[in-house]
Amino acid sequence: MEPKLSTEIMTGLKRMGNSTLVSDEVFVKSLQCGMTTITQPDFTSANLSKTKANWPQTRCKMLADAYAACVSKVQACLSNISVHPPHIVDVQWSLNHNTKSSSNKQTTSSFVSVQFETEGLPEGQEDKLVKFECTLAELQDMVSKLKEALRQVEHIAHI
User: Fold this and answer.
1) In this record, what's one Pfam family (predicted)?
2) How far is CA 48 from CA 68, 70, 81, 102, 130, in A?
3) Is the CB of residue 115 less than 8 Å from the CB of residue 139?
4) Phi first, then psi: what are they for 94, rounded to 5°?
């Protein structure tokens, strides 16, 4: 999915990508400065004016105001960049019976319907439901495997 950026931003990005306009050294310094700036919890115009950037106070205030306007969106996007997959926040289940009958045979079977509600998906994707059905034996097998995984994780955590 291509990000939706304004024309001005795209022009600036194209200029930053042009090595004849911006040297590799300046490009790396700009990236480091930008990443350092957006990860600071106390970014204000007063703090910016104390730097060696020699910006006028009005420019510092403009940048700080622009930063304050979008900092929560940036932090939300950055929080989704991780190795943590979506996590389960709710489970619903029901036990169902399936009865088949004919003049010769009668069969009854039980199965479990399970629904996991997850959250923590990347921005733009809704939290979703994971649904499946299994027999009682399959459910017991899954539960025993989950318990084994839990024991392994607890063992590793105590090492």
Assistant:
1) COMM_domain
2) 13, 17, 27, 81, 47
3) no
4) -150, 145
- Where do the DSSP E strands lie in 104-149? 106-119, 129-135
The CA distances from residue 98 to 9, 126, 131, 135, 140, in Å, are 59, 33, 18, 11, 19
Q: Where along the chain do its domains lie?
A: 7-82, 87-158
Evaluate whether 112 touches 94 at the Cβ level (below 8 Å).
yes
Would you state the structure tokens that stand for residue 100, as one six-digit string?
Answer: 């088949």
**For every one of its 159 residues, what pLDDT tens digit does the chain have, with 9 covering 90 and above?**
456 667 887 787 788 788 888 888 888 887 777 777 666 666 666 666 666 566 677 877 777 787 778 777 877 777 666 656 778 889 999 999 887 767 667 677 889 999 998 887 766 667 688 899 999 999 999 999 999 999 998 888 876
Edge-to-edge order in the sheet of strand 106-119: 87-101, 106-119, 129-135
